[in-house]
Amino acid sequence: MSREEIAGMFGLSDLKQTRVYQEGLQEGREEGLQEGARQEKLRMIPLLLKLQLSAEEIAKELGLDLEEVQQQMQKQPKS
After folding, report:
1. pTM strictly above 0.90
2. Count of the separate structural domains present in the chain
3. By the 8 A CB rule, do 73 and 62 touch?
4. For residue 66, what are the CA distances in angstroms to 21, 28, 31, 38?
5. Sign of CA dihedral 51, 52, 55, 56
6. Segments forming the whole domain that contains residue 56
7. What's the CA gap between 31 and 51, in Å, rounded?
8. What is the spatial distance between Cα 56 and Cα 62, in angstroms, rounded to a whole number?
9. What is the pLDDT along the chain (79 residues), one digit of tens a residue?
10. Helices H, strands E: what count in the chain?
């Protein structure tokens, strides 16, 4: 069933009170927080490169995969 069909079966306020809705909302919030933290770590990579840290050091300090750090490094403009 689509979201609209389910909302039609329940009143919107009733739908928001269901466990499924609450669990989905909480899961979405947690995923959003995790993705936000990951994006912040990726944003820090150029700053750490300016401090002349290696890709391995950056990955270790930020808790990221080395491959992910290397991919971000390739996206950086050459100075």
Report:
1. no
2. 1
3. no
4. 37, 27, 22, 14
5. negative
6. 3-75
7. 31
8. 10
9. 787 777 677 666 666 778 887 899 899 999 999 999 999 999 999 999 999 999 999 999 999 999 999 999 998 876 5
10. 5, 0
